């Protein structure tokens, strides 16, 4: 029984770690995508403003 408990605990810990890592990676990807999109939008706005000025 002790072995079974230890195995279950180890499996649970591994699953939790994997879930946390996946969540962190997803959050980082979302942040990077948002930053890139914002930069693209800002550049486009700047280009439009420059075109209007010229």
SSE layout and pairing:
Elements lengths: L1 H52 L1
Keywords: Membrane, Transmembrane, Transmembrane helix
Describe the structure.
With about 55 residues, the protein is mostly helical. About 95% of the residues lie in helices and about 0% in strands. It is built from one helix and no strands. The protein is rod-shaped, with a radius of gyration of 23 Å. The model has no long low-confidence stretch (mean pLDDT about 90).
Q: What keyword list fits this structure?
A:
single chain; about 55 residues; mainly alpha
Short structural summary:
With 54 residues, this protein is mainly α. Helices cover 96% and strands 0% of the residues.
Order of helices and strands: H
Q: How confident overall, as mean pLDDT? A: 90
Distance between the termini: 79 Å
Categorize the overall geometry. Answer: rod-shaped
Low-confidence stretches: none
Would you report the number of β strands? 0
Q: Biggest β-sheet, characterized?
A: none
The portion of residues forming beta strands comes to: under 5%
Helix content: over 70%
Class by SSE composition: mainly alpha
User: Number of helical segments?
Assistant: 1
The gyration radius over C-alpha positions equals 23 Å
Transmembrane segments: 6-38
Keywords: Membrane, Transmembrane, Transmembrane helix
